[in-house]
Amino acid sequence: METINSEIFTLMYGSIVRQLITDLEDITEVNKQLDTMGYNIGVRLIDEFLAKSRTAACTDFRDSTEKVAKVGFRMFLNTTANVTNWNPEGTECSLVLEDNPLTDFVELPEGCSKLKYCNVLCGVIRGALEMVNVQVECDFAKDTLRGDELNEIRLKLISEGTEAYPFKDDD
Amino acid sequence: MAAGSVLTFVIVGRDDHPIFEADLTSKASEVVNRDDRAQYLHQFVLHAALDAVDEQIWTTTNMHLAQVDNFNQLRVSAYVTAAQMKFLLLHDGKSEDAIKAFFKDVYEVYLKVMMNPFFTPNTQITSPSVHQRIRAIAKTQLKA
Amino acid sequence: MEFRTQTLEAISPVVMVVASPEAEAICQSQNGLTVTDLLRPYGFFHHLSVPVRTVGEHSYRIKELRLRFYEASAIYQPAPKVAEDHLCAVLSNAATDVSHAPDLLAALKKGEVPDALPWFKHYREEYMRMLRFSEHETFDHPVACLLVLSASEPNVVQAAEEMFQTMTLPPALRDSSSQATLLRHHVLLADDRPQPATSPDEKLPEGKLAEMKEGLGDAACSLVRINSGDKDKRSGLAGLWHSQIRSPVEGGGAGEPASKPAMPEQGYGAALSVSDVDGLKRSLEDFAVRALIPHLEMRVRNLSQQVALTRKGFKNQIKTLLWRNRSATSAAILSSATSNGADVPATPLRTPRATTTGVFSGLSGSQAQLRQLADTAFLVQDFQTAASTLRTLAVDYRSEGLWHSYASVQELLGLASFMIGASMQEVMTHFKEAFHRFSPQERDPSRDGIRYATRSMLLLAQYASLHGQWSEAHQGLMRAHLQEEDGRAAVLLEQAALCLLHKQPPNLRRFSFHFVLAGLRYNSCNLRNLGRHAYRQVVWLYEGRHWAFIEEHLHDVLGKQSKAAGDLHGAVRHFLAMLPCPRSSPSWQSFYLRQFLDAATQLAANSPEELGPLDLPLPAVNIRNPQVFYDNQTCHANGAARAVPAAYWRRLESLLLPGGDAGQNWLDSGSKTNLASLHNEVCVAGEAVTVAVQLSNPLGIPLVISRLSILAQLQQPEEQEGADGSILAEEVEVTLAAGEAREVRLQLRPLVPGTLTLRGITWTLSDIARGERLFKLKAASGRRATRDQSRQAKLVFKVIPSAPLLQVELLGLPRTVAEGALVEGQLRLSSRGGSVSGIRMLSAEPDLLLDPSAQPDGVHEASAAAARDQTAQAESTASIGLPQANVPCKGQAFMSSWGPDFCVDGQSGPCSWPMRFHPRQPGRCLLHLLWYFEPRAGEDLRFRMLRMVHEVEVLPSLCCQAQLIPAPDDLQSYLLRLQVDSRQEAESTQLEELVCRSPGWKLEPLASAASPSLSDPAASAHSPPSSANSSTEVHGAHSSLLQQSPDCSIAQLQQPLPAKLQALLYFRLHPPLHPTPDQSKPDLGQQADAAARFHLQGQQMRHAKAQAVFEKQQAGQPKSKHKPQQDPVGAEQKQHASGSTPPAAAAAAIAPDPSQRWAGGAPDLSLHWHLSSQHLHGCHHLYKCWPKGEAGVQMLLKGPAQVQHDFAAQPLCRVRLQLSLRNFLSGDVTAEATFGAAASDAARASWSTPGPASSDLPACHSHVWSGRKRAHIDTLPSGAINHKTTEVLLSSEGMHNLQDYQVKVKDGLLLISGTRGLNDAFPDFTGKRQQLRQERQEFNFHREIRLPADASTASGHVHAKVVEGVLEVTVDKVWGPQASDRVDVQF
């Protein structure tokens, strides 16, 4: 697929975030706004994703997270994430990005320590998964910009669409 | 003053505003000891050297103007980026090659800073990491 | 060309003036001038044309000539020390006032930069003067001697001779031979004043002149008449001398006598008439042209011949060689050796001609001759000769290493080569060479040469700057200043800096640096004024450029100096500028602060009125968009109320205001209808306006700020009264720790109506310095315009007259209560500043209830009574009059309003109302109360709103799960299974009673199984307290209330429930026998019962909320994540969404069972408890317990439990049984019961019936149905019960299993199967609590299978079997999926 210069992309995103901060003047508001933007992106993006990457239908949540991490990130962000520490119920997991092109050059000013710079990613994941009837909560657990050693997005399954996997009779 | 005891680096932006200052001598800590008046003199010399820089910008095409000015033992070497940001290094007799290499590396750091969306050009560079990086460069290149 | 004239002026023939005392007297007495001064202005002759031929054959013409007149006594160089003192005096004179010094910034702006600072020119001249008459340059040696005698001298000639012999020669001419080279000239000074009495014997001056001429030679005498003018009417000549008069050096020297006559009041030369001046001029010119020039001409010739002589030929070469090898001292001996032909010095020299013969002998060596030649040639403007001679001389000196002489030669050579028009480069190299050679080399550290070195650099600088070579001039001066001492170095630096300004483009930054250096030099030599001037010139260039150290330094120095100079304003200003220095160490910061405060205190002490408010940089104040809080039509009771977004309030207001409920969307309805009526930018007189400002302390030391207050201004339209009296601004004391930033809220109250303008804030730093900052408003960007308006800073208000304000207090409302607790509180209403009426309250939380039935105390009877009934009906109408369906967003809020004539006024004190608070959900509970009231006084505000928020934290207390099971033993009653989990941390809960308050229901305690099992985490996990079926619901009633309420059955259970434990309670519940439709729906109109209303609201609330949450999760909005307790925005969203839920859904939520089992709806149960420790009562309402499964037709076969029969007496035992059916379906059914064989065998065969373990009797199947084998009920109406009796004959003892009977229902099939013997099939519950509790697993006798009414198509088989105490019935799939339900009944 056609590509865009990553620096242009990064700078664009950065300027957007910055503009948000100057306009909203409230970091939590900015995080929300970013998430919403990402949501709207994800809602559109999922079709593109399904069309371009001819992946089979996901069988369960694990599968879909794997797809997001490996295929989705590779496709749209040109990086990959690892899906790690599942909770025993298999409803929560973490996406760990080894490198995040959005945060190149970025250094948070001391004013915005609460800012989730890449919150748009959470929104994208949420929106995209929602389009395939997987309701998730998505949040940045760790962020290198805030001094953590890695970028970790925490995924939490809320509800799963029934057509996501075949009807089973339990007895 | 003994050699190596003076090593001050300044990035001067538009309207002669210094957007970054660092005393790169190995002894220097962040909070400067105000008893030595040298600090004043250094800034004066650096500031005065800007005139010399402005004169010499047009004499050469490459960014690294070598030593542009001196006052007694203090020498000022300069490096001017394409956007007319002036890197000034106040030293007493470092080798020009080392200084050139130093400027080159600092320029890399500076580019990174400029790419940071949260950095507004021509404002103070207050990030401590930049300080550390430049200090490290000074250690390697200038043996400071 | 100016430099040329300057050079000609500097190097011109020196005439030594020797005046007789009489002559001096004549001159001075009248004119205040010495003779020398008298002559000086006329020593300049232009438009001459005198042909001169020195060496070589070409002659040239001298066009102009200058003569320098000096008194003989003064022709020597003052000692360096003296000279330095003189120069310092010059500078300090200049320093006395620097006011006339140009402001360089302005000059630079205008583009006219001065060539030099005013004191520089004078200093330069004086400097040059101090260096005249040096021994190694001869052009300052006098070439002529002017003997001035008074005409009244009796014997002129003799007097002249005496004078010549006795005159004191300048040191340069001490040796007689050089004295002989002097050209003598005599001037007869005639006093032309009208003599009162002229003695006849006295000759006229002309006569004297004549005799003088024939005595001394014709050409060497002249007569000058002065004082012919009238002394009193001044001649316009005084100006001629002003430029010439030089201040004497103490001790004399440098061309000036030690003392001079003071300037007379008429001015110099008052007594000189024009004729005098003309005569003087003529005679001097005469002297110059006829005597001096030829004399010099001749000298040049002789000297050149002499030089040629000495330097020619082998012998001379040897001589010069020898000279060079010898030391300079041997020159004297040699000179004496060569001067054997000279005359004796004592003998007077007759003629100049004669003198010329012995000239060269006196001067030592050929270099001296050369030098003399060069200088003299220069004097006669034969620059070619001078230059060439100097060159050769330079070569000589250089080869001999006489560097000083060499340097001076180079200096003169520079001038000469300039005169002959050499290239600039050459000229300047000469000067530089001179400088280099003059400056002290390391091998001779004598600082003597420095002065000359500096002079050559001054020459260079002047030359270069006059020819536009500014950078050359700058370099020269810089080189010169390095080795000079402070004062001169400073002057040189300033001059160099000016040169930088002249460059294109001007080098401002270096210029300023030089000035700073100059200032430092000045200060170090105590020329403070000049130093300050230098600093002041350049401060503007550094200011605001963030060169921290530089600014700090400048202000430091300037401040100290201004303070020293007594300019406290300046000191304060500069110290102020130094204050914000975050980078310096705290000790320095505190030091700066102290010195600033000292200066401020001094200034305040000296002139208090002058110390106005300063623009203090400490603390740093964020003046952009201060947050302003104020009350206008909408008031805020507390800060929490402000924290709630105004959109939420506006929604509530839209409910409360008339016409607020227009449009589904609260936003446009709010903005259009209501907020138009509220004008925002007014504030009420007497009420506080609060401004929140951000203060921060950039320093590392604590700052003490006192009297911090708002700077405001109140203009009254009618009379312009001073704003001070009309504003009450509170003053705050703040102490900011190091680096601390904090928000300070400042209040002020406008006391009278008018226009209030918030200008800024003002404060006092450490009780000394008063500072102020003015607010700046940021233009609201488009995006922020849509945001909360009240947060936008408005700084101008219209103050309207004060209006009464309702004040509400919630008394007895604790911060934290337990969930489901019942708190008795009081609502106290009072009013400030007048009485208010028409009070209405809108509460967004139904947890808070106002109890209208109680007596409002504190109100006098009449109004109280009025108020009560008003309240009663108003509230009933209000709370019922909320049409849930039309405006769903009202589903959350409920209103209670007082009558229009109920008024609260300030005089009669507050009146308070009992209220109850009953939190439903654990977590943080925000009580939003919105009050509407109408001030009785004040027409500006028709009504006002009071917003208040009360926050309560709700702890989880109990978790109840209720289950309703149809009783197995009769068709009416039900079993209520209640599982209560205590979520209390420590203390135990006392369960008091279970109350059923639905009319017609009966509640009887059956059994209670308190399993002391530690609360199993699983149970608590999968049934959180907020889950649907166990959600605690409010009824606001208390035991006291319960007695009043007509029909409610209470099951007392005084049972403690320890913390974290679980209790199981069993009750039997009798539904009303004949539900009447009118009674069915609990009509709150009739029973104005708080509890019931609470209950209703609770239900609506809950369902709306549940619905909202449900929908949100469906829609998957991001907001749905937020719990309503945590996030007011989220809550608001929810309520909005809940508003949009269709009423049908709400109804469905209320009654989930579409086929209403009881027309009256679910029984209204509530569990009362109280916490033993704190006297806290509470109740949980169980509003949604329905029997499991579906309604249908139920049947029951009844008979005696045990039958005693004596089979011996009678073989057959007849037992009477009763079969009763009840129809729960909506429609009628027809049923048919068949007993015995008619029942299908297949069904019977398939039943495996395990024998009971407990009974000892054998099981046997021998029984015969008797009586009617078939009973038919053609119509069994809905809800009706039908009884049929039958008999069974038993032939043997044992446990009989009656299985073979069948009941067919028209729409529905029922199969009854007993798994136990007939005998104990019907236990008596009341008698057997014990058994019930222990043998639970044996209680699986339940015999009811209900099929859903709709799907029960006739035939089919139902198999039932018992698996460990659970009766399972599986039905074949032929009935479709619906029938595949699984009834498990377990006790």
From TrEMBL, chain A:
CDD domains: TRAPPC3_bet3. Keywords: Endoplasmic reticulum, ER-Golgi transport, Golgi apparatus, Transport. Gene3D superfamilies: Trafficking protein particle complex subunit 3. Pfam families: TRAPP. GO terms for biological process: Golgi vesicle transport; macroautophagy. GO terms for cellular component: endoplasmic reticulum; Golgi apparatus; TRAPP complex. Its main location: endoplasmic reticulum. It is found in: Endoplasmic reticulum; Golgi apparatus, cis-Golgi network. Belongs to the TRAPP small subunits family. BET3 subfamily. PANTHER family: TRAFFICKING PROTEIN PARTICLE COMPLEX SUBUNIT 3 (PTHR13048). May play a role in vesicular transport from endoplasmic reticulum to Golgi. Homodimer. This is Trafficking protein particle complex subunit. It comes from Apatococcus lobatus. The lineage of its organism: Eukaryota, Viridiplantae, Chlorophyta, core chlorophytes, Trebouxiophyceae.
TrEMBL record, chain B:
It holds the Pfam family Sedlin_N. This is Trafficking protein particle complex subunit 2. It comes from Apatococcus lobatus. One of its GO terms (biological process) is endoplasmic reticulum to Golgi vesicle-mediated transport. Gene3D superfamilies: 3.30.450.70. It comes from the Eukaryota. InterPro entries: Longin-like_dom_sf, Sedlin. GO terms for cellular component: cytoplasm. PANTHER family: TRAFFICKING PROTEIN PARTICLE COMPLEX SUBUNIT 2.
Automatic annotation (TrEMBL), chain C:
GO terms for cellular component: TRAPPIII protein complex. Coiled coil: none annotated. Residues 1267-1387 form the SHSP domain. Transmembrane segments: none annotated. InterPro entries: A-crystallin/Hsp20_dom, HSP20-like_chaperone, Ig_TPPC8_1st, TRAPP_III_complex_Trs85. Residues 1007-1031, 1142-1154 have a biased composition (Low complexity). SUPFAM superfamilies: HSP20-like chaperones. It comes from Apatococcus lobatus. Belongs to the small heat shock protein (HSP20) family. Residues 246-266, 1007-1041, 1097-1157 are annotated as: Disordered. This is SHSP domain-containing protein. It holds the Pfam family Ig_TPPC8_1st.
